[in-house]
Task: structure prediction
Amino acid sequence: MPELVDKCIGSRIHIVMKSDKEIVGTLLGFDDFVNMVLEDVTEFEITPEGRRITKLDQILLNGNNITMLVPGGEGPEV
Amino acid sequence: MCWQELWERRGCGSGGYYTGGGRQRLDRFLIRIVKMSLRKQTPSDFLKQIIGRPVVVKLNSGVDYRGVLACLDGYMNIALEQTEEYVNGQLKNKYGDAFIRGNNVLYISTQKRRM
Result:
């Protein structure tokens, strides 16, 4: 049975972590634990100054720390 | 009813599939095909691909390790070579070989370009 997250594959997704960190990227795939493979990723540290780290290529994000997924989201406003 | 009326009804315009409404439908169809076939990549596929490449491993603590990925397993336990440890963006240590326990790992990233 196709899951809701499957629909996001190929689109931009905004991921909010348990800590003050958010990740925005293009979803390439995921597994049963919702570990996620993303591309063209920007990492945001949510601080008063709003620090941002941009990484290219692909990442495997550990699903352990994920709190929320926002399909099509752009990330925190900075 | 002639084929022209049918064609107009379907919103395809007079140019056939390549103009007007027909073009949009073709685009949407193609986009769906591309999405589905080009890139479904699960974590285990990703892990097989990246062995031997330079990677950045970020831990839950925020510490960063850059090195060449020697091997890893399904728990995200990682063995790196020529490792550099960055704390708060600053290079702190260099290790010839490093083993990282997977429960600490926040992400593993390939690096084409430096931040």
Remarks:
- The first strand of chain A starts at residue 12 and ends at 17.
